[in-house]
Specification:
alpha/beta, single chain
Length: about 130
């Protein structure tokens, strides 16, 4: 799989535009996740043909920013994050790497899971 980054709720910001510019220079595919994609599996959003668009109704729209990386080797992720840091890209707390397990999850499931883990890890309380 080609290196791909899914961006949700980031692309319209200055940081998002800088991220997209960096990724394009590195020949990394960028997919902007739309609200209409939130209930579809990650595999579908990545364009993997065995996956179907989600049909479940969206009950709430998350407003968090999230970046999901797919097709990267282990060391490449660290290098990419270092490039972002050197370019003064603000820290994006919600990040994930596509795995054999979460590729079947909807984007919203992945976002909610990563947010929960982040809040637990940082000791912050979740507010809705």
């Amino acid at each position: 799989m080609q290196e791909t980054v899914l961006l949700y709720n980031i692309d319209k910001t200055e940081a998002g535009k800088a991220i997209i510019s960096i990724l394009e220079k590195l020949n990394v595919e960028v997919i902007i996740v739309k609200t209409s994609d939130l209930m579809s599996p990650i595999g579908y959003i990545l364009g993997i043909e065995d996956y179907q668009r989600g049909t479940e109704a969206l009950t709430s729209i998350p407003h968090d920013d999230m970046m999901v990386l797919a097709g990267f080797e282990d060391g490449q992720v660290d290098i990419l994050l270092q490039i972002f840091k050197e370019a003064n890209i603000p820290f994006i707390p919600l990040k994930a790497i596509v795995t054999k397990t979460n590729i079947d999850w909807t984007f919203k499931q992945l976002l909610e899971n990563v947010k929960k883990e982040y809040l637990e890890f940082t000791g912050m309380k979740q507010t809705n």
